[in-house]
Amino acid sequence: MPYTSLTWHRAHDLAYRSGHPLAAETVPVDRAIGRVLAGDVTAVAPVPPVDSAVMDGWAVAGPGPWTVLEVDAGPERSRPERTREDAVLHRMRWVRGLTLADGQAVRVRAGALLPARTAGVLVLDRGRVDETGRLTRAPHAQQDEPAPGDHVRRTGEEATTGETVLTGGTTLTPAHVAWAASCGLDMVAVLRRPRVTLVITGAGLAAHGVPEPGTVRDVFGPQLGAYVAALGGTVIGMHHVGLDDRALLAQLGTDAADERQIREATGDVVITTGGTGGSTRHEVRGALAAAGAEILIDGVAVQPGHPLLLARLADGRMLVALPGHPLAAMTGMLTLVAPLLAGLAGAAVPRPGHVRLGADVPAGMRTRLIPYTLDGGVALPSRWRAAGMLRGFAEADGVLICPRDGGETGEVLEEITLPW
């Protein structure tokens, strides 16, 4: 028995709980941004991997003064084709094999490898080197600098080999993947993105230009795929089925006749548009019944977007049926699709935020989802908020969740932040 006319919050929560996390896959770190870690990540090398300089200056050992050691040009010094990179690599190899004795120093740059037994780094403007290669402290320097460890980044001070550096369930940001790379990782295990098939119903949809009288411009085809991507899904197919019940049923059924249908049958979510309202031919409900689907939610007590459906198909795929009116469908994506995809991806449930009203909203018949724009930090409800309108949503900074009693200027209401 489906839940009918649920409140927005109950429908949102049920959609999230209906989406069980998908299997893990291993991807390169640079393709993992926005994905959810399938398990803990441990460092495969210490960070930093070697002692390195924090500042330009001299690596020193002992109390000073110091003799500055100069790198031998090496056996490649006579090669005319030797590049600056060759010289840098040769110096790195030389420093790697160098152990400083008390009273010795070597010139270093910030981030560079330090030789063994470096006590600290004397910063460039705090030292003076005479014509004999003797390094002393500048007059304005402290007589005990550098103190032990000054301006030295020690091996493993951020992380040691085998240390947990990221925990499972983390949604990866650019900073996370940079950190994973610095810990020596090339690949990470993340939960698979939900795969989504889009099915657009309705007759008289014009794909280009200004529609003729009796037809309407298709507003779902151009943007639903990007909307799904912004919510964390991957579109694997899009179909326009008009009012053909058999074509719609073919997208919901389990019988795959070709390679494309086989691929889409292994998807996770089907999103349909249109055919859900009480005054329609009930194309979606009829197809769902014929396909043996289980309807979980039949209607949400909001305006616009009341005739929303959430169902589980016979093969386990989830289906969200959006109304045909544009704004009702766009807010329906936030009501059911956003939490469903988050649940499948193993991400946290997207919680509403809060915003202060900059204008009164009168009472209504049910909870309303109203696009708003921010002006001076307060929310101004759009006047373009009827179910068939798109202008208010196109201009919006978010969507208000306005209760039946309405709201007064200065009152704080819940809001849904848009995913772009």
TrEMBL record:
Task: For this UniProt record, give its keywords in alphabetical order, as a comma-separated list.
Answer: Magnesium, Membrane, Metal-binding, Molybdenum, Molybdenum cofactor biosynthesis, Transferase, Transmembrane, Transmembrane helix
Under catalytic activity, the entry for this protein gives: adenylyl-molybdopterin + molybdate = Mo-molybdopterin + AMP + H(+)
Q: Which organism is it from?
A: Tersicoccus solisilvae
Instruction: Kindly provide the name given to this protein in its UniProt entry.
Output: Molybdopterin molybdenumtransferase
In the UniProt record, does the keyword ATP-binding occur?
Answer: no
User: Which Enzyme Commission numbers does its entry carry?
Assistant: 2.10.1.1
Biased composition annotated in UniProt, kind: Basic and acidic residues: 148-157
Upper classification of the organism:
Bacteria, Bacillati, Actinomycetota, Actinomycetes, Micrococcales
What Gene3D superfamilies does the database record attribute to this sequence? Answer: MoaB/Mog-like domain, MoeA, C-terminal, domain IV, Molybdopterin biosynthesis moea protein, domain 2, Molybdopterin biosynthesis moea protein, domain 3
